[in-house]
Design goal:
- The protein is α+β, with helices and mostly antiparallel strands.
- It has eight helices and twelve strands.
Length: about 270
């Protein structure tokens, strides 16, 4: 057995955060979009026990993939697996890399185990790992409500190119929410237009805000923070315009920069033997 599973990053085209509720959690309204900056899971049959390795040594041995795998083994007869995480999505960036990796093994498990599991059961496993994880089971574009786990699939948009940039500083999710709690703001309804919005820009690091401005100065039609940061993205009308802007921003050497495009729902969930 040899399986290579795409685990795409996401951006938030819209993200508005409500006040803490009775569970001490923040309800959100968001629009997710999968993009082709991706991690990959390389899955082979192992011997004796599951082994999960990562190309990035900063990823701890106990991670979202190991947690998802433990939950899966409670409901699926999986053989011992050797999983290598090819890590390309940076952490503490609001791009959902860890969540996408967890969804990747959940999606692959059905094929490996040779059984079909109801989506509701898979979604329950995903939610137990993290509230962003269910989105990556469906990919493409979707509205997220509740804590992000109540999903409404949206039609695939027209192809779009973007530049993703991350300053040399990360944003811990818990800290970002703590800062946002001290910033009065309305909890916005879903927009009627395609204008980007993210509440976390109120508390974003200066480096992230500088990059948003640089993207606009280099031709982005719109630019915004994704998730709780620190990565930002700008939308461009063509691949060439995006690549030109990326090269100019890379010249500063104070951030990481990627050119990417929107993924369709089918592309988001690719698996290759």
């Amino acid at each position: 057995m040899h399986l290579r599973v795409r685990c795409p990053a996401k951006i938030n085209l819209f993200l508005s955060v409500g006040a803490k509720d009775f569970r001490n959690y923040h309800p959100i309204r968001t629009i997710f979009q999968a993009i082709d900056l991706s991690d990959y899971l390389v899955i082979r049959e192992g011997t004796g026990r599951h082994i999960v390795e990562c190309s990035n040594p900063s990823v701890p041995p106990e991670n979202t993939v190991t947690k998802a795998l433990r939950l899966l083994t409670e409901v699926l007869p999986l053989p011992p697996l050797h999983i290598t995480i090819e890590k390309n999505i940076p952490s503490e960036s609001g791009l959902g890399g860890g969540s996408s990796d967890a969804a990747g093994i959940i999606r692959a498990a059905q094929r490996i185990g040779g059984v079909s599991i109801p989506f509701g059961e898979l979604k329950g496993i995903a939610e137990a790992v993290g509230m962003d994880v269910p989105f990556f089971l469906i990919g493409g574009r979707a509205k997220g409500e509740g804590y992000g786990e109540i999903l409404t699939s949206l039609a695939d948009p027209e192809p779009r190119w973007l530049v993703v940039a991350r300053p040399n500083v990360g944003c811990g999710t818990a800290e970002a929410y703590h800062k946002l709690d001290a910033a009065p703001r309305p909890w916005l309804e879903f927009p009627d237009t395609d204008m980007l919005h993210n509440d976390f820009e109120i508390v974003a690091p200066p480096g992230s805000l500088d990059l948003i401005q640089k993207l606009r100065e280099n031709g982005a039609s719109q630019a915004a923070l994704t998730g709780s940061g620190s990565a930002v993205f700008g939308l461009f009308d063509s691949r060439q315009l995006a690549e030109d802007a990326a090269q100019k921003i890379k010249a500063d050497r104070t951030q990481e920069v990627w050119t990417a495009r929107y993924l369709t729902r089918n592309e988001s969930c690719e698996m290759d033997h």
